[in-house]
Structures are given as structure tokens and as C-alpha cells.
What does this fold into?
Amino acid sequence: MSIRARFQLDRGEFRLDVDLDLPGRGVTALFGPSGSGKTTLLRLIAGLERAPGYLEVNGEVWQDETHFLPTHRRSLGYVFQEASLFPHLSAQRNLEYGMKRVPAAQRRVDLDRVLDLLGIGHLLERKPDRLSGGERQRVAIGRALLTSPRVLLMDEPLSALDLARKQEILPYLERLHDELDIPILYVSHAPDEVARLADHIVALDNGRAVAEGPLAATLARLDLPIRLGEDVGVVLDAVIGEHDEAWHLVRADFAGGGLWVRDNGLPSGHHVRVRILARDVSLSLSHQEDTSIQNLLQGCVSQIADDNHPALVLVRVHVGEAPIVARLTKRSASTLGLVPGKAVWVQIKAVALIG
Amino acid sequence: MTHDDFIAIWLTLKLAGVTTAVLLLIATPIAWWLAHTRSIWKSPLGALVNLPLVMPPTVLGFYLLLALGPQGPVGHFTESLGLGRLPFTFWGLVVGSVLFSMPFAVQPIQNAFEAMGPRPMEVAATLRAGFLDRFLSVALPLARPGFLTAVVLAFSHTVGEFGVVLMLGGNIPGETQVLSIAIYNHVEMQEYGPAHWLAGGMAAFSFVVLLSLNLLARRRET
It folds into this structure.
């Protein structure tokens, strides 16, 4: 189960040259700044654009030197930036448009299941112009899913929506990820979406894949040449453990220990992701007793690298198995005498529970 | 009004109906091609299609008469097929009207296809619809206002045609004598009564056509 994609495109000012072997399950984020070629890559995979190359999706060759399978013969779902519902059809007939064109024997995704998953059952009679932006995009996602695709391609499906609408849709996307066994290629330039949804990440810059790998390991790389800026940080898998009812806190247990975070009602045993930004992490050589910071963990420096600004460094510390990245000034790194292998205390000021 | 007048009215409606039907079949692929091509032939072909907008109808009629006549290339062809000659027949008028009204059918359809943009057809392709399927299920319904305008304009433009008909069809009652020519005949004979009936009828018809187009356009906006 995998997606092999190799393309070379030369349009003068814009070049794309990628050779990717992506996992055939989970969410793979194609991440990068605008103009990096994310959308073009997605359109090439869909067959909406042509460039010489090779494409194989879970064992089926869609393009090689001699063959090019037209888009409508490819078992894919595509969600565009704008919902692009057919304005002359009701939500229901939009949903059924692709489903009806797939032979009944090949339909694996059930209409009622999709309506329930996306919370759109009550919208069926409405025409697209009577739906909100978020509702339209949910119908568009459902429409793509109902073709029972081998792969779901999503081109910044949230970027045309305001923050509230994004928050409305993200939980549904997480449910897709958790409950359906359809690999998703998710184009985004928003680090928070990627941190929340992706299992695997491909960082694109200038038409090239500059980094690729599992989310946690890739985000913890200090040499990532893409500019995450203020968003440099790690994402860790964790399980909700002990609740501290008196203080409304819960402990999220990860591979390197436990982190106390605000209790937002998740039960013990629930799998979550926690995101720790490098700017919220500081280091000290001794255990600080008199500090407001609740999360203090013991770790070991594994790598030090320059940051964007000459005054700053990024320090990767391993806490047990888990990598955590801290952003410090060069001066404090020098004062502390940080070198790989040195034992340190990691002080984490803020932890975000995502998903 | 004479018996010939009623025949002329019927003939005119028949000519306009047949012309509109033929035009829809021809203009749709031309409009699609003009809306999507990046070929260097787009501008020359577009100009050719729109030529009747600026060319005097008598000029078009004159060249058609030559082309369709026994000495013309098309005339040779139709005779060799056993279809006979087209000038001074109903079907000759259809050929002339189709060419003459072509821009009135192509332009609104082309505009509608262009306004639609490539996205709806791309979406349909990702939903397993082949070209003809998505053309019929997505492009046609979305371009419906353009088709409606094309039908109304092509029909009414054919109804009012005079120059091409006169050059190509002459004035044969029951075969090529359409309304506008019947009016001309009445005026020539100084029969102003029937001329008024026919001319007034056409003026009212034109007004109703434009009014309904306007109302349709307004209903679409709300």
C-alpha cells in the first residue's frame, strides 16, 4: 500500500521535480509556502494537469511513459479550495453525482455513514446557495468520499473559510482520519492544520521535496529548510492519564513522561496529540523549585542548530524517546555550556492539546 | 391579409425554427472550442463567425448565391449528391439564415461557457464523469441562460431577415417568400393595410421577445 509519484514539470518560471514514495494510509500533508508546487503536485496526481512522470496508487498504475489514465477513470476524490458544488443541484444530488457513476459493486462508502460522519443529513434538500461556507465544504468532502476513492486529495480545504468555520470542520476531518481507511493527501500551508491532522509530512519548496517523513520525527528535525518561523515545534502522541479534578488539569502521558494540561473533558485512555512550540520551551541545568512552570522534564541535548536569526539557536532535547525542540538565544546556550549529550531540565510553558 | 400572407407567416416561423435548431447543433461545439482553445486560429475563426455582424446581408447573400449556384463549389457538390440546387429553395434559405445568424447564437453560448470557468468540469471529472457525461450534466445546465439568449436572438433575428433571403431565395410564395419580403411586396403595390398588419405584428413580436428576455434575466438575478 503506497503512492509512488514521480513528476518533472518545466514551465519556464516554475519547475517541479519530485520523486515521492508516500504511505498508502493515514493523512500525508503536502506542506510548503505558496508557489512551492503543492497544488500543482495534487493536480498532477489527479490527472487535471499533465507532466512526464510515473504515478502508481496502491498498486494501480495511473501514469507511465506510455499510458495516461484520464481523471474520470482514476479512483480518487478531490476536494477543492472552494467547495465548488454544482450550483444547479441540491446538496443531495451533489452528493449522489459521483456515487451514481461508480458501479454498485465498487461502492464501499455508505451514504448514511457519510451524512452522519459529516453532520450534513439535515441539509440534503438545500441548493448550494442556501448553505454556509462550512456546510458547502462538508458536502463537497462527502461528495468526494462517496465515490469510494482509493485516495482522497484535499487542496487546502479550509483556506477559504474563516477561523470559526475552520474549527467547525476540523473535527470532521479528524473523524475521516480515524474512521475511514482511505489515505488522504492534504495540501496546506498552515502549520496548525498539519500538526493536527497529518501522520506523514512532505515539505515542498520551489517545486522540490525538501523533507519527508513521519510527522513527529520530521517536525523535530532542526535542518528543515522550510520556514516555520514562530511555528517551529514538535507534535507528540500522548494518552490522557490522571485527572486532577481540584485544579481542572489532566496529565497527557507521552513516550518521555507526563504533561499537565487544561482539562477539556477528555476521558482517561483517550489518544491525543500535544503540540509544543519551540518558543515555549526553556532549558535549565538544575531542577527549578520556585517557578510557575508546571511541566518540568529531565532530558538530554541531542542536537544544536542555527535558527533563522543570528541571535537564536534551536536545541533538540530527547526526553525519553520523545524529541522536544527549544528556541534559545545563542548567549544563553553558551552560558549554559550546552553540547550534545549534556543533561538538562526542560521547562515547558505551554502545551496545546490537539485532536 | 391574403392567403399568401398567412403562408408567409407560417414559412417565416418554420424557417426561424429550423434555423434555430440547426444553429444550436452547430454553434454549441464552435462556442465550446472558442471558449477553451489556446490555438492561434481562435482569433481568425472567431472573426469569421462574427463576420455577419458587420457585413451587409446582401453581400453574404450574393456570395452564397454564387457558392450554392450551379457554377459554385457547393452547388457542384449538392448536385452530385442528387440534392439539386439550393438557391431559390427553402433549404437554401436555411443555409443562408444559419450563417447569417451564427454570431447571435455563438456569442451568448461562448460567453456562458467562459463565465463558467474550468472548475465545474474539473470537479465532474474527479467524480467519474467522462467528457460527454459532464458536458450534458454540468456544462449545459450551467450555460442554460446563454442557450436561452441564443435561441431567442437566433430565432428573432431570422424572423426579421431580408437581405440574404432576397438575394438567395427571391420571392417565391410558399417556398421562399417570408414575412419581411411580403411586407416589401405590399408596400411596392401600395397596399398599406396588410403591410401595417404584418409590420405592426412584427414590431409587437420584437417587443415581446426583448421584454421576455429582460424578465428572464431579472428572474435569474434574484
Observations:
- The first helix of chain A runs from residue 38 to 46.
- The longest strand of chain A covers residues 233-244.
